[in-house]
């Protein structure tokens, strides 16, 4: 069985005790083990801060960008191998593996280009500045300087490559070294990505470290200049964000957590229009892609009450075409859930939702998968539920089922009442809104725009170009208010902000202008 290693203090560390086991989700067979036992987290942090931090701060944005470009290229060169490993480790189909891996290389290359465009500077001023005294001589402006600590990243199991890359891209470009910890169940893919990056020789020492297994006392050692960015469940986030040292040192913390994302069909969309087709196509994809194990998946579908039957029929027809099974079978379109725990949680979650919603497609229970041994594998078919009144529902707006599960929530009146339903989840990463004119968009923005981190507007003219609401683009913000964690990642240049200290510099303008950057 494969033993995963961690990469700390510029070398590979292999534990010999305390292992957690990783399984093949299609066969349930153990495939690898991971443990971080024996790592000296204090020394790992010091090495990253000192060596990695100094190396990055000495580099210009263009040089850091070139480093990200090299990272993207080296991962892309091993794409086929990584796709195969993703299937083994997490049970994803080829298409779903690409979604994760191509997302990783694309995000790295996006930030590589951004670095190139920022050029030969080490930091930048975020504004022109302002006159502060009687004469223009007394001047002030805000600089964005790299924080002098380490960025510790903890990621969820569902994006083992993208999770590593999207956080690392922003931190490295800003000038901060990274210690990344993947979720244990999918850590083999991340470990291999790290191995490829280390072997490429592009990374200066200390810039990227990897922890496979538990974080030990790493988090309780973080201090004033460090950054802690977490992606995972709201329950784990709640435990970690309140660690006494993080509070006492004002360590910068960013949380990306659960999200009960919504799709909203505005009233009056013609059944034969491209907007309607786009809505059905997007929602189906967002339920099934990565077996619904996406933080941006659509969990609630708000539709005008008099169109709910038609929507239900169209969705059931499409969901019925899913072939659930081992992705090595060519006809399979949806793989298993990643772990037995995820399967049990999904089953229990549907049972909870079914207390107030009717199951209109699927069973909410484990199924046998095509190409897999009967009774083996954590397979789960798409399940669609429907509540009578989206506004009056309760559990549907509070409980995230992390699988191919979604609920139709009929609403009365205009998009404003759908916005109230969307808001009942207390903050989401993304809401998709399908409209055919500006009025409904304006109505939605005023009534509920602020309850989501991203609003994906689907309409006829852009239908052919839209990637789907679940696709996170590096140029656009990722994160959402409230239960979605309140964090912000990516979003082009603003994604660097988490890793930079804004410093207001005031004084003689002539002097300020001559200071190097
Ligand atoms: P999870 O159980 O909360 O785990 C997330 C990460 O936290 C894993 O790396 C896990 O490591 C680690 N962890 C757990 N307890 C810890 C502790 N006490 N100290 C340090 N690290 C700890 O979540 P998950 O099951 O991996 O992911 C599913 C959840 O993530 C869903 O709720 C989903 O909505 C959310 N998610 C959100 C986003 C977003 O961007 N908002 C993206 C993806 C997923 P181990 O695996 O070793 O326990």
Could you walk me through the main structural features you see in this protein, from its secondary elements to its overall organization?
- The longest helix has 25 residues, at 94-118.
- The chain has a seven-stranded mixed β-sheet with strand order 16-17-18-15-14-19-20, sandwiched between helices. The protein has a five-stranded parallel β-sheet with strand order 11-10-9-12-13, sandwiched between helices.
- It folds into two domains: 2-257 and 489-514, Aldehyde Dehydrogenase, Chain A, domain 1; 262-479, Aldehyde Dehydrogenase, Chain A, domain 2, CATH 3.40.309.10.
- Helices cover 34% and strands 20% of the residues.
- By secondary structure, it is α/β, with parallel strands linked by helices.
- The protein starts with a strand and ends with a helix.
- It is globular.
- Helix 13 (438-448) links the parallel strand 19 (428-434) and strand 20.
- The protein has 14 helices and 23 strands.
- The structure holds NADP nicotinamide-adenine-dinucleotide phosphate.
């Amino acid at each position: 069985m494969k033993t995963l290693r961690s990469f700390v203090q510029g070398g590979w560390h292999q534990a010999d005790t305390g292992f957690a086991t990783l399984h093949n989700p299609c066969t349930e067979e153990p495939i690898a083990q991971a443990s971080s036992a024996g790592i000296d987290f204090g020394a790992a942090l010091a090495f990253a801060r000192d060596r990695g931090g100094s190396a990055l701060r000495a580099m210009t944005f263009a040089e850091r960008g070139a480093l990200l470009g090299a990272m993207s290229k080296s991962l892309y060169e091993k794409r086929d191998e990584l796709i195969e490993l993703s299937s083994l480790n997490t049970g994803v189909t080829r298409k779903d593996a690409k979604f994760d891996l191509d997302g990783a290389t694309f995000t790295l290359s996006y930030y590589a280009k951004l670095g190139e465009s920022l050029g030969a500077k080490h930091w930048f001023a975020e504004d022109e500045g302002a006159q502060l005294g009687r004469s223009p001589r007394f001047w002030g402006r805000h600089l964005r300087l790299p924080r002098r600590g380490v960025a510790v990243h903890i990621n969820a199991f569902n994006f083992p490559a993208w999770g590593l890359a999207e956080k690392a891209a922003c931190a490295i470009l800003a000038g901060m070294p990274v210690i990344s910890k993947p979720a244990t169940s999918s850590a083999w893919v991340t470990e291999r990505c790290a191995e490829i990056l280390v072997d490429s020789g592009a990374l200066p020492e200390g810039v990227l470290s990897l922890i496979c297994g538990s974080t030990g006392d790493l988090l309780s050692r973080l201090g004033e200049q460090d950054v802690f960015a977490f992606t995972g469940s709201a329950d784990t986030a709640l435990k970690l964000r309140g660690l006494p040292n993080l509070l006492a040192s004002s360590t910068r913390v960013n949380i990306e957590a659960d999200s009960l994302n919504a799709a909203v069909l505005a009233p009056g969309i013609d059944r034969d229009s491209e907007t309607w087709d786009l809505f059905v196509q997007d929602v189906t994809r967002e339920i099934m892609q990565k077996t619904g194990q996406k933080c941006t998946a659509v969990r609630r579908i708000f539709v005008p009450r008099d169109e709910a039957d038609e929507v239900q029929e169209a969705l059931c027809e499409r969901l019925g075409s899913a072939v659930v099974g081992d992705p090595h079978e060519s006809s399979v379109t949806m793989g298993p859930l990643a772990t037995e725990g995820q399967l049990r949680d999904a089953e229990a979650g549907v049972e909870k939702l079914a207390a107030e919603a009717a199951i209109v497609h699927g069973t909410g229970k484990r199924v046998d998968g095509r190409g897999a041994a009967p009774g083996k594998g954590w397979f789960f078919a798409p399940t669609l539920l429907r509540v009578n009144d989206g506004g009056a529902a309760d559990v549907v707006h509070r409980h995230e089922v992390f699988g191919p599960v979604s609920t139709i929530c009929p609403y009365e009146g205009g998009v404003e009442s759908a916005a109230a339903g969307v808001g009942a989840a207390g903050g989401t990463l993304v809401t998709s809104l399908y409209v055919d004119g500006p009025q409904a968009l304006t109505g939605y923005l005023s009534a509920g725009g602020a309850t989501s981190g991203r609003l994906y507007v689907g309409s006829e003219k852009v239908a052919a170009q839209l990637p789907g609401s679940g696709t996170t683009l590096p140029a656009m913000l990722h994160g959402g208010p409230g239960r979605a964690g309140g964090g912000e990642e990516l979003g082009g240049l603003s994604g660097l902000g988490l890793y930079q200290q804004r410093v207001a510099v005031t004084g003689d303008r002539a002097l300020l202008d001559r200071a190097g950057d």
